[in-house]
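ok new one. same drill as before - structure tokens go in, u give me an amino acid for every spot. 326 of them this time. try not to just spam alanines like last time pls lmao
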């Protein structure tokens, strides 16, 4: 994969210009025959190269599915300083599970794991996350914060806030954050976040933040039960998205957000910007045995609820359902 990533990096640097087979072989340090084999392999994976006699090759198109080699090439061109270890993978159990295993094995952190498919993707409370191959992308960031759990109460909300802003800017979509861990478009789930931690002696020893984002799924490709409540970037915009490029951009957003969070620059931003992205504010909701109107979040990230009798409640965790007005 290293040779493939380096070949793609050379084409990215060319910016749509032509490169001769001889120049490619010389820069890679391989024979022209081997370079040709690499390009044929990439063609089978959806890359399109245009060849012109006496001019060479030009990269004309990339596959829209997540491609680990292209992701690695993008990283080589534009590194993400926050992450010390990056693992672009294919089909795996779940990115969170792999990130947890890497942390337990002593891999240098912060680390990032990406995948094209999850065979055991998971959401909150042990739920399965629909994780088909090639249509979405899955990503987890793992780190060893060595902080009290109270210092990390708002990290999922802060990362959701930053991702919401990015997706709004990138795709002109009205993305909102549903407390505590979903990104929505028109009340349909676009992405899910899952933060898991291992606490030891009142410190958070390991922390893993996972993101599953629906990319190029058509509505009828979701399981029947999810079709009324889920969406994807393709469904919302009408266009396919390059998941390799999107994963690189999202990883950059997460890296910057985590750096800001751990250097203490997140609290004021979350309080100031949350009302504009809050999918629940002012809505009637139910959670467990409680019902009420959402007033927003507290500085510690709890959901503020006004009960029907006028009293206030703070929800620190739980599942929230919007009450139907019909």
């Amino acid at each position: 994969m290293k040779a493939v990533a380096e070949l793609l990096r050379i084409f990215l640097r060319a910016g749509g210009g032509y490169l001769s087979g001889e120049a490619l072989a010389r820069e890679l340090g391989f024979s022209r025959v081997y370079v040709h084999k690499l390009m044929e392999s990439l063609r089978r994976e959806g890359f399109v190269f245009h060849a012109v006699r006496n001019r060479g090759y030009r990269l004309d198109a990339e596959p829209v599915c997540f491609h680990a080699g292209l992701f690695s090439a993008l990283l080589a061109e534009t590194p993400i300083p926050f992450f010390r270890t990056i693992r672009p993978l294919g089909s795996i159990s779940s990115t969170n599970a792999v990130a947890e295993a890497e942390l337990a094995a002593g891999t240098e952190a912060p680390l990032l794991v990406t995948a094209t498919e999850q065979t055991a993707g998971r959401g909150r409370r042990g739920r399965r996350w629909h994780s088909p191959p090639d249509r979405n992308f899955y990503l987890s960031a793992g780190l060893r914060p060595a902080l009290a759990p109270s210092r990390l109460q708002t990290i999922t909300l802060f990362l959701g806030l930053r991702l919401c802003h990015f997706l709004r800017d990138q795709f002109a979509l009205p993305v909102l954050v549903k407390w505590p861990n979903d990104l929505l478009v028109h009340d349909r789930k676009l992405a899910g976040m899952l933060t898991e931690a291992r606490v030891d002696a009142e410190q958070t020893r390991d922390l893993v933040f996972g993101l599953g984002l629906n990319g190029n799924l058509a509505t009828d490709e979701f399981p029947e039960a999810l079709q009324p409540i889920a969406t994807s970037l393709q469904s919302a915009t009408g266009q396919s998205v390059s998941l390799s490029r999107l994963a690189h951009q999202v990883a950059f957003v997460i890296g910057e957000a985590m750096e800001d969070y751990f250097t203490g620059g997140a609290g004021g931003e979350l309080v100031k910007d949350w009302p504009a992205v809050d999918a629940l504010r002012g809505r009637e909701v139910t959670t467990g045995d409680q019902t009420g109107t959402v007033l927003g979040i507290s500085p510690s990230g709890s959901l503020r609820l006004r009960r029907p009798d006028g009293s206030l409640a703070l929800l620190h965790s739980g599942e929230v359902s919007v009450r139907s007005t019909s």
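DSSP finds nine helices and 16 strands in the chain. and btw Residues 196 and 211 are 12 Å apart (CA to CA).
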